[in-house]
Write a structure and sequence with these properties.
Elements lengths: L1 H35 L2 E4 L3 E5 L10 E5 L6 E4 L9 E10 L3 H8 L9 E11 L5 E4 L4 E4 L3 E3 L4 E5 L4 E5 L5 E3 L4 E11 L4 E11 L7 E3 L4 E4 L13 E4 L3 E2 L2 E5 L9 E10 L5 E11 L24 E6 L4 E7 L5 E9 L9 E4 L3 E6 L5 E9 L2 E5 L13 H4 L11 E3 L1 H10 L5 E5 L40
Parallel strand pairs: 2-6, 8-14, 16-21, 22-30, 28-29
Antiparallel strand pairs: 1-3, 4-5, 5-6, 7-10, 9-12, 11-13, 13-14, 15-17, 17-18, 19-20, 20-21, 22-23, 23-24, 25-30, 26-27, 27-28
Amino acid sequence: MRIKRFFLKLITVLLAVVFAAVAFVLCIYVLWYVFDRPVVVFEETEISVEVGSQFDPESLLSVHRNIPDDHISVDAEELDLSRPGDYEVVFSIDAFPIGKQLLAKAGMAFISPDVQQQSVIVHVTDSEAPVLKTVKSPYKVKKGDTLKVDDLVKSVSDSTEVTVTFKDGSTKMKCDVEGEQTVTVCAADEGGNVTSVDVTLSIEGVDVTPPVISGADDLILAVNERSSIDLMEGITARDNKDGDVEVWIESGGPPDLDHADSGVIVYRADDKAGNESRVTRTIAVYDKVAGEGENRFGLLWDITGIENQPYLVAVNRIRNVVTVYGKGASGNYDTPVRSFICSVGSATPDGYFKTQERYRWHALWEDSFGQYATRITGHILFHSVPYEVNEDPSSLEYEEYNKLGTSASLGCVRMTVEDCKWIYENCPEGFVCVIFDDDLSNGPLGKPKAQEIDDSDVEKRGWDPTDPDPNNPWLK
């Protein structure tokens, strides 16, 4: 009986000890759970950030407790803040409570870490358009040039790579139309944001037109008519692009005003494009100006004015030059007004003639044809240099044209189209023509020069450079 009671007490004590141990373990667990349990709290599991911004993935951890910093690792190798996209950031958490660490340090190596992983999605977005700065308007460019879009860009900046194009997506454009034109420059980033800026182009044609010199008219003076002369008085030059430009005397000088003399002055003006312009001016001083009965040029003709005939045309066979005289105050042909270069021939007669009919185109010798023909006498005419095809101004015998100023015709008086056209249009039928010889002088207005034709220039050589025909390539 006594033994039975002893075992009952022993069992009771053992149970009490077991219950006390269990209670102790539960208390320890509760204390661990409250004070030693690892705690990690994430701010968000998805987040959006602007491309190019500064971002620390660890900022996503709002709370972490009972886990040392070196037990939290972040795998953000794929994260690229310079490019828009969705990236996964993986957090690895070594949940090894401090209490367990102590046990592990005490030699209980069987206690292993509790590693947890958490993924956070980072949306890298691009919502800001590029900053684009272009050149100032208007931007000058030459007609015919190819313009690159980069020529219009001063700077462009963005957090991502930027593509700059014109509005149509191209990067080049041909500037074919002269004048002002507006183009749009577009800068697009990788996020699809676009900045557009309009630029005004000033497309300028290639300047091939030389300045025009004005006021350099030929001058006829009598001896002692003036005591001095200002060669620059009234001389101006104007360019189609540059406006008024400087004009100066390139060569020559004034004649002796006290004696019969002549001076040839060459005026020159250049524009900014380098186009040069020259004008030759003749200033002649005479004892008399084509006085009646005068034999100054080795000839004698009646210069008494003919009613309804404003001009007398004089042809110097030796010098191959034509001088047109108009009526002066006396009513006689005593005022030289124009001079033309010409070509006569051994069959050209001398004498005093009253001209006859005229022809727009006329057959000449040996299947050749001439423009603006005026009959002087018989088969002798004023006309242009011959053409190979009737009424075809592009069939000029250019080798004959280059002989102007020398004796080269079969008897007629050849001139440029511009000059024979002037006689055709301004000298009525019946005007006086005097053909004479003077080997000493080219006349009061001198002898002009003709444009030389390059026989290798296939496009132009078949045309008279002075022909006003709109199809004349010399006029382009």
